[in-house]
Specification:
mainly alpha; 142 residues
Length: 142
């Protein structure tokens, strides 16, 4: 039953793609060796890199603010314990985002710089946070 439903969806989607190709006047499909295919591949890789960079920056800035909240005077013991528990889970998310970032950086053409977990964890103040400075001007403008 599920396989038949999947085949029906595939046929419906294929029909929609064929109709769109006719409407747009597409006569030739791109092949991996075509220049357009490679250009689109570079654009997709750069878009993924930018998305991973934004995600990683967001997580690091959030961690910096949580650390500063934890070190503020007047923060109670229970709140400090709660923040510490949240930071522990947050570090796991940063580690995963860093893996995605490094994979995306390696896929770029030319490959962008990669970061280590130790470099990222050393960011303790917002003034030390210069991940955007390591990115190229091209990344920031996109």
């Amino acid at each position: 039953m599920i396989r038949r439903h999947a085949m029906e969806n595939f046929e419906k989607d294929l029909k929609m793609v064929q109709d769109l190709e006719v409407k747009l006047g597409i006569t030739k499909c791109w092949l991996p060796e075509d220049e357009e295919w490679q250009t689109a591949g570079h654009l997709v890789a750069n878009c993924k890199y930018q998305h991973c960079l934004n995600q990683l920056e967001s997580l690091i800035v959030t961690q910096i603010f949580e650390l500063s909240k934890m070190n503020q005077a007047g923060t109670g013991y229970k709140l400090c314990k709660h923040i510490a528990k949240a930071l522990k889970a947050h570090l796991a998310a940063i580690h995963t985002a860093l893996d995605w970032f490094n994979t995306a950086a390696h896929a770029c053409s030319p490959p962008c710089c990669q970061l280590t977990f130790e470099e990222v964890v050393e960011y303790t103040f917002l003034t030390d946070f210069d991940l955007l400075c390591n990115a190229t001007c091209e990344d920031i403008s996109q």
